[in-house]
Task: inverse folding
């Protein structure tokens, strides 16, 4: 018999501990590496602009994923080390040098990390491929969105595995550094007392949680909409919710008083008293589980929002799949160019229409944000907006529209809900920028044409033909724009045609159309006149393949869809990963806490047995203890997640759209699945705990 | 074999200091079976933990076979724990994943002793303490008395200078308690083992050669057995009654 054989035998006997740690390492590496294979793969990397917000966000979320995986794996390792502590305490007491134990521990940890990480990385490749295929299954695919393997993902996976090994090594080193044998031997028996829990703890907790969520989320939008007043720091109210959650859980864990229901009190007396010894740490632990489940539900909500949002993109809102507008003075693509390009790509053009429109100076009412307040502004002759004659509108959309003299109709997308900034009826006068001729106008309703709406800020307007002729008399060509709208026979198969046409459009774009989205020639003119620097004079980089912020950027829905698909893949994937990580972390933490409770109560269960408690009674006590650990955080975390999601949907535009209602329905379904999963973990943990207390 | 000179130990909690052992001096001769008794808070377990060097003491000397073992570096202390000290704990501290026989072998496995002699010695100890029938079983499958006898056998594997036992009968019924005390007595008779035992059980202590009674961190009295065991137990009970209160030790 040698030490190696003894350690091998001990490993064999404690296989479940090694399995749990190995599983957590495997899961962490699998999550991070499969994510990395996609994120660092050529498809996503070539698509995401360098230094762009999307890339920054993706990097940030990758960081969160890495941190989450590290935290839950290190947490799971504490159970592993707790089992080891008794073993190592005995070895130390029997004279085995710490150096030798350290060698064994690090040998075991290295092997475990290497094997589990290798498995995680290898499984990460097919996992990332399958997830990618899943996205492709319900969205448009083409050569640009094909899955491609990149070495970057492998390197990232390996680096993460090393990082995880480093954290586990530090935890192991800390464990081995504990020199006091008595502490090690009694590590599993440490308990703590909590102060008497007052009767008002639960009601106070509920009030604080509700107040925290309502004030944290609702106060700011309420102030803005009701009083046009922004107050910074309202997010601090969430702290109230956190304190409330702590109090609710503390009460659930350790409060039991002899009230009216004496039967219930005596029934729960033993299980509650057993929990009291570790109430503080159990409650802290449960709070983290609540937050994990909240993040879990919220990330799934966010992911679903992206999915539903992308499905409608380029279809319901847009009038036509292809929309172009550019200054008439530019030598841009014409009908013949478009048809020629379509022929090249075997695409058939249909519903082609075009027309000239004018930019006129508008006087309108709008809302501005200044010094923490939302203020109503009367913007007199402040900027340009696109104006269409009723005739031009009909030519572009095919819709006959009647507009009385001296009135206007505002162009909006379908199912439009006005934001706080702009009023659809805010316009009250328009003027010719060259001649200064002005005309008072009154609101006469709205028209739905998403493609045209997107061409002008705040809106595009349709006016009477005579008013249009009168206002545009002697208007120089520099204020005129040409609009082209059309579809193809099969819009979903028009990606190559769209990219070709986009390329031609960009290559022919000149100085006149080289402006960023917020540029306004009249505002620049006013600024220059007053000797001020104009803030939106920047130029878009027209050398890029796809240009983000471009006033005259073509609206090709197929490109937007593919663009959105890639973004969706990143966001949904990130949300999915955060969902999995948070759920895994909550499951692991609940399991570890259950085992800790069973370990800590082993002696008490033995004493209860000696006092004559039968197996059913002891089992019931164990069940009550463990169900508290699972039930309260699960219900609280999930409900908070759903409530927050509902708040967010409503606060966007003070209503629930059909998509949002559908998303919330799905989230409720996900919540049920999460609760079912946690129930499974509960039964698994209970079985393990029953073995510990010998039931 | 064991000499303790002017031993002091103080626990600190926040700004408060609690002296637990105050200038304690005594000795244990080779082959002697000595018990330490005293009321709750008298410092029994602290004394044992200081002698084991599981916790550091403030000042004083602990001489084992003439050598001061206090403040030794970790490596040397490990060697002393393995070769010169044997431990028996109240809750047995057996490795659940190892059989009884393997648990007993453990000190010699750590010391890398030759296997044949080690196994022979382990078998001998099993026979000596009446646990040869459960040799291949695991701790979970045997009784408390058998577990503690396994722990005593394990403590004796390297023929230590002294066995330090912390409430070895605390978790046992009277029959198992008798069997464990019998194991200590056999070790003393057949192997000339020295045993230093902390106990609150006057029945167990009545089998000892000498009992050191602690009160408030100092030696209240020392009783040496010179008559029958029953007389000695009566003497012990008288002293404990005089001290007042029970002698439960949970410090």
Result:
């Amino acid at each position: 018999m040698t030490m190696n054989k003894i350690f091998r035998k001990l490993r064999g006997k404690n296989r479940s501990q090694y399995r749990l740690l190995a599983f957590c390492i495997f899961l962490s590496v699998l999550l991070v590496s499969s994510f990395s294979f996609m994120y660092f793969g050529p498809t996503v990397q070539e698509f995401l602009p360098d230094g762009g917000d999307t890339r920054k966000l993706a990097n940030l979320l990758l960081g969160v994923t890495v941190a989450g995986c590290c935290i839950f794996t290190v947490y799971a390792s504490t159970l592993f080390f707790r089992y080891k502590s008794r073993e190592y305490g005995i070895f130390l007491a029997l004279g085995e040098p710490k150096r030798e134990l350290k060698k064994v521990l690090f040998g075991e940890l290295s092997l475990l990390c290497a094997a589990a990480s290798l498995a995680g990385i290898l499984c990460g490749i097919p996992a990332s491929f399958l997830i990618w295929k899943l996205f492709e299954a319900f969205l448009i695919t083409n050569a640009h969105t094909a899955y491609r393997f990149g070495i970057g993902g492998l390197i990232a996976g390996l680096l993460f595995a090393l990082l995880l090994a480093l954290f586990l090594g530090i935890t192991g080193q800390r464990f081995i550094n504990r020199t006091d044998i008595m502490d090690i031997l009694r590590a599993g028996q440490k308990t703590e007392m909590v102060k008497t829990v007052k009767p008002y703890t639960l009601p106070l907790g509920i009030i604080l949680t509700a107040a925290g969520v309502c004030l944290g989320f609702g106060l700011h939008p309420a102030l803005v909409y009701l009083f046009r007043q922004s107050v910074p720091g309202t997010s601090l109210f969430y702290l109230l919710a956190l304190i409330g959650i702590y109090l609710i859980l503390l009460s659930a864990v350790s409060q039991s008083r002899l009230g009216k229901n004496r039967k219930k009190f005596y029934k729960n007396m033993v299980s509650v008293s057993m929990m009291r010894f570790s109430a503080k740490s159990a409650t802290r632990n449960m709070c983290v589980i609540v937050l994990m489940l909240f993040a879990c539900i919220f990330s799934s909500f966010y992911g679903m929002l992206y999915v539903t949002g992308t499905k409608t993109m380029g279809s319901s809102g847009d009038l036509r799949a292809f929309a172009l507008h550019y200054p008439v003075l530019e030598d841009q693509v014409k009908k013949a160019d478009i048809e020629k390009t379509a022929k090249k790509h075997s695409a058939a053009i249909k519903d082609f229409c075009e027309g000239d429109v004018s930019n006129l100076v508008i006087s309108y009412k709008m809302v501005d944000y200044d010094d923490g307040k939302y203020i109503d502004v009367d913007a007199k002759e402040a900027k340009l907006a696109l104006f269409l004659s009723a005739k031009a509108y009909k030519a572009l959309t095919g819709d006959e529209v009647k507009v009385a003299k001296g009135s206007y109709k505002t162009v909006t997308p379908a199912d439009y809900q006005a934001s706080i900034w702009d009023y659809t009826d805010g316009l009250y006068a328009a003027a010719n920028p060259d001649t200064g001729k002005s005309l008072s106008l009154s609101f006469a309703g709205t028209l739905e044409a998403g493609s045209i709406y997107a061409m002008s800020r705040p809106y595009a307007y349709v006016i009477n033909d005579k008013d249009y002729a009168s206002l545009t008399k002697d208007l120089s060509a520099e204020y005129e724009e040409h609009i082209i709208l059309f579809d193809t026979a099969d819009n979903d198969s028009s990606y190559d045609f769209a990219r070709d046409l986009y390329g031609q459009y960009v290559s022919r774009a000149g100085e006149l159309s080289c402006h960023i989205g917020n540029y306004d020639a009249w505002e620049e003119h006013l600024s220059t006149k007053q000797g001020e620097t104009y803030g939106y004079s920047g130029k878009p980089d027209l050398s890029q393949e796809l240009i983000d912020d471009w006033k005259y950027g073509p609206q090709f829905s197929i490109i937007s869809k593919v663009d959105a698909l890639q973004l969706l893949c990143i966001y949904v994937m990130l949300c999915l990963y955060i969902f999995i990580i948070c759920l895994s972390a909550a499951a692991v933490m609940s399991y570890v806490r259950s085992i800790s409770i069973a370990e800590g109560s082993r002696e008490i269960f033995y004493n209860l047995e000696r006092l004559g408690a039968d197996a059913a009674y002891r089992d019931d006590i164990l069940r009550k203890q463990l169900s508290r650990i699972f039930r309260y955080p699960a219900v609280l975390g999930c409900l908070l997640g759903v409530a927050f999601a509902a708040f967010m949907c409503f606060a966007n535009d003070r209503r629930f759209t059909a998509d949002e209602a559908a998303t919330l329905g799905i989230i409720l379904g996900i919540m049920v699945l999460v609760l079912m999963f946690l129930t499974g973990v509960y039964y698994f943990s209970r079985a393990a705990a029953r073995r510990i207390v010998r039931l | 074999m064991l000499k303790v000179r002017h031993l002091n130990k103080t626990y600190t909690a926040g700004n408060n200091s609690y002296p637990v052992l105050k200038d304690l001096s005594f000795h244990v001769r080779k082959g002697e079976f000595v018990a330490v008794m005293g009321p709750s808070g008298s410092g029994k377990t602290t004394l044992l933990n200081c002698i084991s060097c599981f916790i550091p003491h403030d000042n004083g000397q602990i001489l084992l076979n003439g050598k001061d073992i206090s403040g030794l570096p970790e490596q040397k202390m490990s060697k002393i724990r393995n070769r010169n000290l044997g431990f028996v704990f109240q809750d047995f501290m057996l490795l659940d994943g190892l059989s009884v026989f393997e648990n007993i072998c453990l000190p010699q496995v750590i010391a890398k002793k030759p296997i044949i002699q080690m196994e022979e010695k382990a078998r001998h100890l099993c026979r000596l303490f009446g646990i040869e029938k459960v040799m291949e079983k695991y701790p979970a499958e045997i009784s408390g008395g058998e577990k503690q006898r396994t722990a005593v056998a394990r403590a004796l594997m390297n023929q230590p200078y002294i066995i330090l036992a912390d409430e070895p009968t605390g978790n046992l019924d009277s029959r198992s308690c008798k069997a464990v005390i019998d194991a200590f007595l056999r070790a003393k008779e057949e192997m000339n083992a020295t045993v230093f035992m902390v106990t609150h059980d006057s029945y167990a202590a009545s089998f000892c050669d000498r009992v050191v009674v602690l009160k408030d961190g100092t030696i209240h009295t020392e009783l040496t057995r010179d008559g029958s065991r029953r007389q000695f137990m009566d003497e012990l009970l008288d002293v404990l009654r005089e001290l007042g209160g029970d002698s439960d030790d949970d410090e």
